[in-house]
Specification:
0% strand; Endonuclease III, domain 1; 208 residues
DNA sequence: CACCAGGAATGTA
DNA sequence: TACATTCATGGT
């Protein structure tokens, strides 16, 4: 399985090269984007983030202090704005009360993940995205694209979140840079060949 | 018009 | 545990 996963990685990297994720100016913006992108296209997230930047509140302090009704207006393009405004408030509060980015980076990964999952609005994928892309922890992020990849190539019997995550983490070296690039490449490839028509034609993973 | 996008919480059986 | 429903905007 290790060779299979590395074959997929190599073919994706050969096609697309470095993706330089997460696309954000600061680590705090990574966390904010991770919440905003829940079941939402990245283009819409960018509009919401741009609004927050123009208002000078694209930070934990900014999110924490701003009036929630005003926050809803700024993040409106990202959808689910009633929920996400509350989720962003919860997340900003958590970081401000627990040492923020640099303070939390020193903590144990497993403990950190459990604490992140207690935040209302932060599920497994969002927690893992924060761990990997904001806190530089070697955690593999599983999203809908990753699940579809595993299913279509029949790489695992169990396709629940934890099973797929273990598949990657137990077969690859726990390397932050590798997990960062691998997930980004999966998303890049899926956007190009799994949604647009015709599907799969010319996909670097044909026959893998 | 339908469908979905870098999910999560909540409710039901 | 395993599904179903709800949340909402904007592009294709």
């Amino acid at each position: 399985m290790r060779d299979k996963l590395l074959e997929i990685y190599d073919k994706l990297f050969e096609r697309y090269s470095n993706q330089y994720w997460w696309p954000a100016a600061t680590k705090e913006e990574v966390v904010i984007g991770a919440v905003l992108t829940q079941n939402t296209s990245w283009a819409n997230v960018e509009k919401a983030v741009e609004n927050l930047k123009q208002q000078g509140v694209c930070s934990f302090e900014g999110i924490y202090k701003i009036n929630i009704e005003q926050l809803k207006i700024y993040i409106k393009p990202a959808g689910f704005f009633n929920q996400k405004a509350e989720y962003l408030k919860n997340t900003a509060k958590f970081f401000l009360e627990n040492g923020s980015i640099n303070g939390l980076k020193k903590r144990d990964t497993k403990i950190l993940r459990e604490k992140l999952l207690k935040i209302k609005g932060v599920g497994k994928e969002t927690a893992d995205s924060i761990l990997l892309y904001a806190l530089d922890k070697p955690v593999f992020v599983v999203d809908a694209y990753t699940k579809r990849l595993i299913e279509r190539h029949n790489l695992s019997k169990n396709t629940d979140y934890d099973s797929i995550q273990r598949l990657f983490e137990e077969n690859l070296k726990k390397d932050t840079a590798l997990f960062n690039e691998f997930h980004a490449l999966i998303v890049k490839n899926a956007k190009e060949f799994c949604t647009k028509k015709p599907r799969c034609n010319g996909c670097p993973l044909e026959g893998v």
